[in-house]
Amino acid sequence: MRNPSQPSLMQELVQALSHAERAVVRRLEPALEAEGCSVAQWRVLLLLADRRGHPMSEIAEFALVPAPSLTRLVDRMVTDGLVHRRADDRDRRRTLVHLTPRGLALHRRLDARVQREEDAVLVQAGEDEAQALLDLLAALVARLR
């Protein structure tokens, strides 16, 4: 039986994952902020870079942003000329968000900055260890769904 004064495995897992996420974001933020971009905006740009257009619900899930916050974020990105909304050709009731040429250019600049940061992180953390952690996390997420 578990000692009540000791954290449970779930508590430790939540704590460790939160610390890891914050550490990675803290490393990434300066590279993004140099281009005036937030982590949430970067995630939106990442998804939209496939140039297929995506509905807001899919963007919210990918970017890990609640729907109301995503609406405000996408509105700002529209105002900044990074994305535009367009009715889906297959289902006119559905609206898709697409990158503009300006958004695509920002994505490319950010991609180069993020790649440099990734290279630096992998030197410190080790590529094999990072890949092993990614594989474990993917397996954990798949099992918890």
What topology does this entry show?
Blueprint: H1 9-33, H2 39-48, H3 56-63, H4 67-79, E1 83-87, E2 95-99, H5 101-125, H6 127-144
Antiparallel strand pairs: 1-2
What would you say this structure looks like, in words?
- This protein is mainly α and 145 residues long.
- It has one domain: Arc Repressor Mutant, subunit A.
- 68% of the residues lie in helices and 7% in strands.
- It has helices at residues 9-33, 39-48, 56-63, 67-79, 101-125, 127-144, and strands spanning 83-87, 95-99.
- A two-stranded antiparallel ribbon has the order 1-2.
- Strand 1 (83-87) and strand 2 (95-99) form a beta hairpin.
- The longest helix is centred in the first third of the chain and has 25 residues, at 9-33.
- It is globular.
Number of individual domains: 1
The profile of the biggest β sheet is: 2 strands, antiparallel
Label the structural class. Answer: mainly alpha
CATH architecture: Orthogonal Bundle
Strand content: 5-15%
Q: Determine the number of helices (DSSP H or I, runs of at least 4 residues).
A: 6
Question: Helix coverage percent of residues?
Answer: 55-70%
Distance between the termini: 27 Å
Taken from the alpha-carbon principal axes, the silhouette is globular
Evaluate the radius of gyration: 18 Å
Q: Strand order, biggest sheet?
A: 1-2
Count the E strands. 2
CATH topology: Arc Repressor Mutant, subunit A
Order of helices and strands: HHHHEEHH
What is the gist of this entry?
The protein is mainly alpha-helical and 145 residues long. Helices cover 68% and strands 7% of the residues.
